[in-house]
Design goal:
Order of helices and strands: HHEEEHEHHEHEHE
Strand order of the largest sheet: 4-3-5-6-7
Structural class: alpha/beta
Helix content: 55-70%
Oligomer: single chain
Radius of gyration: 54 Å
Number of strands: 7
Shape: rod-shaped
Number of helices: 7
Amino acid sequence: MRKRREGNELSLAFLDVICCGFGAIILLLMITKVSLPEILEVSLEEIAALIAQRQEEIEKIIGETEELERTRVETEENLDVELIRLVELQEELLELTSHYQSLLQITEEQEIQRADLTLAQQSLTEEMIRLLGTGFRRSTDTIGGIPVDSEYIIFIIDTSGSMHGLAWRSTVKKLQEVLNIYPDVKGIQVMNDMGDYMFPQSRGAWLEDSQARRRTIMSRMRNWSIFSNSSPVEGIEEAIDTYYDPNKKISLYVFGDDFAGIDVEYVVDRIELVNRKDAEGNCRVRIHGIGFPVYLTLPGNISQQTFKYGLLMRQLTVRNCGTFVGLPDLE
C-alpha cells in the first residue's frame, strides 16, 4: 500500500508538472494571440502615415523643382533680353561717343576759325600792309570801330517813353550784341540814364559775369521800365564817381534817342572834369554811345533833341576815348 501510494504521488507530481507546462504554453499562446495583432496593426498605421508624409514631401519637392525650373527658364529668357539691351546700349554709347567726338572736333574747328576771324578783324590785311606799310599798327583793338579792351563794362540806358514805345526791342537786341563782343569780363553793371540801377541791391558793387547772370540781365531788360529824363548826365557821373579805379579798364555804353538838356557844351565839360585823363592822355573810363533814330522814323516829328543827342554823344565819345554809333534804323 505504501509503495502504491508513493507511485501515485509521483504520477500526480508529474501530471502537475505536465499540466503546469501546458498551462504555461496556453498562456503564452493566449498572450501571443492577443498582443501580436495589436503590435502589427499599430506598425502598419505608422508606416502608412510615414508613407503619406513622404509622398507629400516628394510632391512638394517636385513642385519646388518645377517652380525652380520655370524660374530658371524665365531667368534665362530675361538674361537674353538683358543681353540684347546691353548690346543696344553699347551701340548707343558708341554712337554718342562718336557724335561727341564729332562735336568736339567741330567746336575746336570753330574756335580756330573764331580766332582766325578775330585775328583778321584786329590785324592788317596784306592789301593794308601794302598800302600803309609794315610798320603801321592799330592804336586800339576794335571791333566795328569800338575798342573792346575793357575788363569792366557799364550800360547806361535811356528808359524814357519814346525809347520804350518804339525802340525797346532794338535796344534789347543791341544790348545782347554788345555783351557778345565781350565774351568774358570781370564785372558788369546796368543803370538807366538817371543813375538808377537795374539791380538796386548791387549799387556800388560789380555784378559777376556769367552766362546765368547775362540771361538774368536780358530777361530783366525786356520788361525794365523806370522814369527817365532823357539825359545821360546823371548816369555817367554816377558810373564814374562810383566805379572808377586806376587799376581797372572800364567802358561805359550809353543807349539813347534824344537829349532833353539845354547846353551840350556844358555837359561835355562837366563830364570831362569827372573823367580826367592821366599824364599820358588816357581816360579814366571809355564812353561809347549808341543812338536810336526813334524820331527820325516818324515823319514830321523830327526833334531838335534828337540832333542834340547825336552832337552830345559825338563830343562825349571823342573826348572820352570812345566811339559813337548812330543806327540808320530801328531794325
